Amino acid sequence: MCAALSVAGLGGAAPAAAAQAKATKAVDFAKAQLGKPYRYGGNGPSSYDCSGLVKRSYRSAGVSLSRTTQAQYRQGRSVARSHLRPGDLVFFYRGPSHVGMYVGGGKMVHAPSSGKRIKVERMAGHYNGSMVGARRVA
């Protein structure tokens, strides 16, 4: 009886662990792009826009996402800000018109805007008040 309970308990944990492994792989890919320039419509490998970076990062982990920020906002499931985990997508501004990937500690990796480079940045301050939602896609 104990063995059966133990196996059943593992069954629920395995999908969650696999999902977190995919999210971690996506975060690692995004961080490996640090310093590359923002380019509108950029899909990599030399430059990215915000949604292109997210799409390519998750593709490296075997997860298929839509190309645009607005379409990515409709994928996965909604996550409260207080429950963010590394790999969750964080969306900003009305539309939404910007996406980043939460990396933990109140920070995100993102491709900010023209003339800037991919970076890890605190969500507090400028981005904090403009967050419109978050999605878990893995």
From TrEMBL:
Residues 1-18 form the signal peptide. Keywords: Hydrolase, Protease, Signal, Thiol protease. PROSITE patterns: NLPC_P60. GO terms for biological process: proteolysis. Residues 20-138 form the NlpC/P60 domain. One of its GO terms (molecular function) is cysteine-type peptidase activity. SUPFAM superfamilies: Cysteine proteinases. InterPro entries: NLP_P60_dom, Papain-like_cys_pep_sf, Peptidase_C40. The keyword rRNA-binding does not apply. Belongs to the peptidase C40 family. This is NlpC/P60 family protein.
